[in-house]
Each structure stands twice: as C-alpha cells, then as structure tokens.
Amino acid sequence: MRWAVAETGDGGARLCPLGPDGRPAGPVLREPDLVESVRSRPEVERWVWRSTAEIYRRLLSAGVRVERCYDVEAAEALLIGHEEGQSGQPRSLAAAWARLRGLPVPDDPPVRSAEPQPSLFEPGPVPLPPGTDTFDALLEVYAEQVARTEKAEHPERMRLLLAAESAGMLVASEMGWVGLPWRADVHRELLDALLGERYPGGLEPRRMAELAEEVSRAFGEGVRVRPDLPAEIVKAFAGAGISLSSTRKWELQDIDHPAVAPLLAYKKLYRLHTAHGWAWLQQWVREGRFRPEYLPGGTVSGRWTTNGGGALQIPKVIRRAVIADPGWRLVVADAAQMEPRVLAAISRDRGLMEVAGSGADLYADLAARAFGGDRDRAKLGLLGAIYGQTSGDALKHMADLRRRYPAAVEYVDAAARAGEQGRLVRTWLGRTCPPASMTPPEEAGLPQEEAPSYGSTAGSRARGRFTRNFVVQGSAADWALLMLAALRRALHEAGLRAEMVFFQHDEVIVHCPAEEAEAVAAAIPEAAAVASRVAFGPTPVRFPFSTSVVECYADAK
Description:
Layout: E1 2-7, E2 13-18, E3 29-31, H1 34-39, E4 46-49, H2 52-61, E5 69-71, H3 72-84, H4 93-101, H5 134-150, H6 155-178, E6 180-181, H7 184-195, H8 206-218, H9 230-239, H10 249-252, H11 260-276, H12 278-284, E7 285-286, E8 289-290, E9 294-295, E10 305-306, E11 328-335, H13 338-347, H14 350-356, H15 362-370, H16 375-387, H17 393-404, H18 406-420, H19 458-493, E12 499-504, E13 507-513, H20 517-536, E14 545-550
Parallel strand pairs: 1-4, 4-5
Antiparallel strand pairs: 1-2, 2-3, 6-8, 7-8, 9-10, 11-13, 11-14, 12-13
C-alpha cells in the first residue's frame, strides 16, 4: 500500500492512499501533525512525497523511521533524463508540474552553502504558481510519473531504479542524522603533531612556515616564493632554467632540484590544513559526530557527493580520529573490483562472468586465464577497456581481452561509439547520461584517460571515453544503491542497534555494538547477493567484500 503525504504550512499533513496507477484510492485526509500521520500508519509500504531531504529530517528528529519512500523530485531527475536526454534539468515538484501543464519551467534553487547546522534562512522549495495546491500538484505529478515509467525502454528496470534512488535518499538522510563517530581531541592532536603550533592572525602553522622558508632558500638568497601560489612556483623554477606546465605532484617529482622535496611536503600539509584543519574541525564536528549532507546521484553517473565537509575525501592520517564509541565497533567493508564485476554482469559475457564468479581477486583469476599469470597486466587490460586506454601496451591487452571476452569488450566499445556519434547511453537500470552539449567528461567527475585511436575529433573521442565509462560506473552506482537498501533492511529486520554511518562508491561503514559486529559483517555480503539478484537476475557474478572490524577507521585494511 502506498500513501502520498505533504506537509501543510502549519506543521500538519494532507495525505491519501494511492492505487496502482498512482491516482488517489481513497479520500484526501487533513491531519494536524505530519509526524503522527506517518507514525500512526506502520502498515504503509511506501510513502510518496515531494523530497526526502525536505521531510525525512523532521521524522527522524521525532524518532520515526520510514521503511520505503518514493521521492518525486529524485524520480523527476531520472525520468527527464531518460525520456528527453536532458539530465541535469530542473527536478523540483514545481518544475515537474510546469512540464506537465506546458508552462515555463522554473529553475531549481542554487545549492545552498554547506552548513553542519540548519540555518534560519535556508531557501524553501521552489514555489508553485499562485493558487496551485501543493498536495494536488504532488498527486498529479506522481500519477504522471507512474505512466511515464511504463513507457521507459525497460519499465521494470526503471521502476527498480526509481525505488533504489529513493532508498538511497533515506540512507543518506539517516547517515547525515546519525553522523560518523569523530574524536575531536584525537583530531587536534594529529594536527598539532603534523602542522605544529598555530600563530595568531591567520598565519600558517609552524611546520608549513618552515617548509615555505626551505622552498624559498632552495631558489637562492633573497628569493621569496609563496608555495601556495602556483604562478610563483612556475616562475621560480623558470628562473632556475626549469620549465613547468603545472605544479602537480607527478610533474614535480621528476625534477632534480632542492626545492622539490619541501614543496611536495608543503603541498601535502597545505591540503590537510585547508580541507581538514582546525577550522574544519570547529565547523563540522559536533557532540562527537561528523554529519555531512550526502547527495545521492550528485554526479551524472549516480555516484554520491556531499554538500561541503569533504566526507568523501577523508585523508588516511585523519581517519585516526574516526573512532567507535566505547563498547562499539566500526565494520568497514570494501567491495572488491566492483566495476569490472559489474561489466561482467551487464555484458553477459560468459567467460568474464565465470572469472567474476570464481574468487575474491578477479584480476588474479583473469591473469591465470588470459595473461600468463601476470596480475598487473590483467588489471591494466580490463581497466583500460572500461576507461578507454586503447593505445600503447593497453592496446595489446585490449586485443587479448577482445579475443577471450568479446561480449564484454563490445559492450563498452558500443557505448564509446554511441558517445562519439553524439548519442545517449544508459546504465543497466536506465540512468541516462547527459547530452554532449551539457556535461563535458571532465565536469562529470569521470576519468580523463589517454585518447583512443578511433573517432574523428578530440571532442568526440573524449565523449566516447565518457560514455564508455558511464555505462559501467553508472551501473555500479545503481547496484550500490540496491546493496545499501538491502543492508539497511537486513539490519532493521534483525533488530540490531547497528547504524550505517558512511558510504562512498564501494565502501560502507556500519557503527554497531561490539557484540553485533559478527552479524553485521555477515549481513554485508548477503546484501550484496540480494542486490546482484535484484539488479541482474540469475548470474554467476559475485560481489565479494573485504571486511574489517575495528575500533579506529585507520586500522581497517
């Protein structure tokens, strides 16, 4: 049973049951308290609402957990991309309603500045035209989305994708609400040890100031160089007869000059100081928890991002501050070679599916069958096929793969050809890439690799690399949503106190009482198996995880 619900301006709710066609299956009710409206109906299988981020935080703060939801705005983003190839277009309820009525589509509001605590001045939802009832618009848009879903290329897959994206919204909200355990005292000790004491007035910490002096001295007496300014670094090296195109590590580390070592050390500490230094700690850690705002589907491929806080780029050294509560543990699980396994599943290549189902180390198994036991060559060849490295040694490896695993290579080759020709591609479940005119690969957060040997222009080849990777990376992101949903349900049904507290791409962290750690560790591969079965049907492909039970995140292997 599905029910639609919308909050009224006075904190109440309007709600009604829905039929299979998405239309009301009973009277529209008006009740005085949104929270109690949801709490008092545990029999509802799925709540349909405008936006999870908008409504679920209020429910969580009142101790109300929702098993399933349908996020109309998340669904609109996927459907408009699938139908019209316009991924990235406005997704709000107001935008969806305007499209339905043939009216001008309002823009989505700008992404608000990230703040760990709610602001009194946060923008509300995009307003509907005057006189338009929000709940009526919700019902109308949802019914139309149900009809649109049935017209998708693969309706059953699109239904699954919409459910998975909405499940991801629930997980993201819960993780942001619970927070990642974080010891501020340990974090400060790490900063003090690595950066040295702080100076007043916003000056650099002692160790960074010392390294900056070393860099300047390396260029000669009287030379002052600010290592945080790339233009000054390039100019200083030019004065020493060394031409640089950038100040990136890979270019600097090949240069024989006394300034290189302190400069690289400075750059490392600079990143730590600016991204996870004292200011970050003061802003983001409250009451022993780091609570970022996760954004499911934040990239075009479906991978998550965060709105501030840098949750997906926690440096290894700072992970020392991520420590479980007393008597609790962190269960840290990494999916092994997730994207190559997804390629095997979606391409239906019998040989590669056999490899992906034979053991925990896909590259070692592939090497034994096709690369004379050379694991590095096997890894380079398979990742080259996914990311578009088709020259040099990678070209030879691609030829070997094509002979042994023709269906898998043709799957990504076909996606690359489609991209070069300006066509759209989709993930296995139906997430659609943006058109060539909207999102260049470098802005999509996808790899920029060496240009392949086919295609007529650099732009078309770049587009081909993007779409080649999109069908695999995007399908992996969709699978990960299903895994998270299955794990969330398993933990709840087992009656565990365990909480999912972190997720990025292929890694999940669960915070749980020590006595539950074994059950949690067992639930993760079971959730992966459920996700595989639901997404791909019967398949020999396995998705193993390497799992560590630790007190400190940095100790996970």
